[in-house]
Amino acid sequence: xxxxxxxxxxxxxxxxxxxxxxxxxxxxxxxxxxxxxxxxxxxxxxxxxxxxxxxxxxxxxxxxxxxxxxxxxxxxxxxxxxxxxxxxxxxxxxxxxxxxxxxxxxxxxxxxxxxxxxxxxxxxxxxxxxxxxxxxxxxxxxxxxxxxxxxxxxxxxxxxxxxxxxxxxxxxxxxxxxxxxxxxxxxxxxxxxxxxxxxxxxxxxxxxxxxxxxxxxxxxxxxxxxxxxxxxxxxxxxxxxxxxxxxxxxxxxxxxxxxxxxxxxxxxxxxxxxxxxxxxxxxxxxxxxxxxxxxxxxxxxxxxxxxxxxxxxxxxxxxxxxxxxxxxxxxxxxxxxxxxxxxxxxx
Length: 347
Known about the structure:
Layout: H1 9-19, E1 27-28, E2 31-32, E3 45-53, E4 63-66, E5 71-76, E6 81-86, E7 91-96, E8 102-108, E9 113-118, E10 123-128, E11 134-139, E12 144-150, E13 155-160, E14 166-171, E15 176-182, E16 190-193, E17 196-201, E18 206-211, E19 216-222, E20 232-235, E21 240-245, E22 249-254, E23 260-265, E24 270-276, E25 281-286, E26 290-298, E27 301-309, E28 316-320, E29 325-330, E30 338-345
Antiparallel strand pairs: 1-2, 3-30, 4-5, 5-6, 6-7, 8-9, 9-10, 10-11, 12-13, 13-14, 14-15, 16-17, 17-18, 18-19, 20-21, 21-22, 22-23, 24-25, 25-26, 26-27, 28-29, 29-30
């Protein structure tokens, strides 16, 4: 029979049956995760390449990027190093050693300085991003973790604490610590929105709202639907705050009221959330080994489009909208080498 024969009635019936099959969705503990209504999910990100980091032992914390030179800075916390990777060539460039459990990193192109928050010694260290020699050291009382830069005030904001909690503020015009604002307990991820800062405080299972004008906590929102609220992202234009819990709950809050307006099931161990405002999507990297892609249908309605398999423990991620890239760090475990999985964000 020729290769281009028209389909007969039997083949047409089989095709119709296949088209009518229900969409298979990812499951978590035997419970299906929500999928798109009425069809196959659109592809949101496509795997492009993998960059092996053979000398890294253990896992990762946050990443930062030098967009102009396409350099990625990766905190290898267990390895006590920051790895520098060329995203253009897909090759490691160098390793910056002797950092005492690097957590979060921020790159400032105006200074060409890489700032590294370290957990074991309670420091934020500024490194010359060409020579990687130390330029500045800011010493805090306890562990330094999450690190954000506020361009409006030219301040670095750092989460501080282990037996207590605070937000520390570093003035980058004068390169000095200017104040700390106490919290109910140690902070995890936080988001800056003008004079307000939204902070996840997981041990108390709350979100605290800090007002920098009055330099104190002005509201505390209980996280009732989830535990271990660690990752966070913010839709500033539409006043929506996104939070995930360890057990696999994704929550949406109105920053105007402090009330949760949506809840979804995602995979366990979420550690990174990024909001892609141009595409109205969120990317959630999880230790369960999936990237959950969520569509913002409107301000109070959200839908899980797909769960993209990665690697167990691959919870650290970074969205780079300027390059249309999304990067997930996969930890070293046993004979498996540490690596970066690079994805292209679909327009």
